[in-house]
Design goal:
204 residues; alpha+beta; 3-stranded antiparallel beta sheet; 22% helix; flat
Length: 204
């Protein structure tokens, strides 16, 4: 069962993840952001994105200078790709890319690795804290949206989402529905019914 917590609420169970959203005072833990507590896991509904090693991000190339490619992640920290002579990607300003977080250097710069160009699609931005709900447990939510809409969806933990092909308008609507209703239980089934209903109307 999901429990909604607000800042200051006592967390009456062991919390396994997302230490950025609670603090411990002695033997008690207290929530610092509005969150859903689900089986010992805090899913934040408000707050900032904290880059973690290995997370996928989506961004837009902002500047290309010698071996440094600066990427706009819609985040207050600078993000860069350090090119090597073996890299074959010819980055251009405005390119949409997918990459992984390698590390955060000196708490100021996000170092990105494994970049991949994303072409002929569109970007959607949501609050980064809603991304875990949009992905869903074991990717169930995003897989469901992708399956119904026939769209290729790449989700960045920074809150930028790339969508290409299929019924992109419906994919956007479904993603925004998840973001707006992230606090509700039974959301996966609710989104499924929404998609089925919308597709039925379209087919008529």
């Amino acid at each position: 069962m999901n429990t909604i917590l607000i800042p200051g609420d006592l967390i009456e169970t062991d919390v396994a993840r997302n230490r950025n959203y609670y603090f411990t005072d002695g033997s008690n833990s207290y929530c610092t952001s509005m969150c859903i507590l689900n089986n010992g896991r805090l899913v934040p509904l408000e707050g900032l994105w904290y880059p973690n090693e290995g997370e996928t991000v989506v961004g837009v190339v902002k500047e290309v200078k010698n071996s440094i490619v600066e990427v706009d992640l819609s985040h207050f920290l600078r993000a860069i790709i350090i090119k090597s002579p073996r890299d074959r990607i010819a980055f251009r300003i405005g390119d949409i890319i997918e990459a992984s977080v390698k590390q955060v250097e000196d708490k100021k710069t996000i170092i990105l690795i494994f970049p991949r160009l994303l072409k002929n699609g569109q970007l959607l931005q949501v609050k980064a804290v809603k991304i875990p709900r949009i992905i869903g447990k074991n990717n169930t939510m995003v897989a469901q949206i992708s399956s119904f809409t026939k769209s290729n969806i790449v989700i960045g933990y920074n809150g930028l989402i790339y969508i290409r092909g299929g019924d992109m308008a419906l994919a956007v609507s479904a993603i925004l529905k998840v973001a707006a209703e992230a606090h509700k239980p039974g959301l996966t089934e609710g989104v499924k019914k929404f998609l089925e209903r919308e597709l039925e109307v379209t087919e008529k």
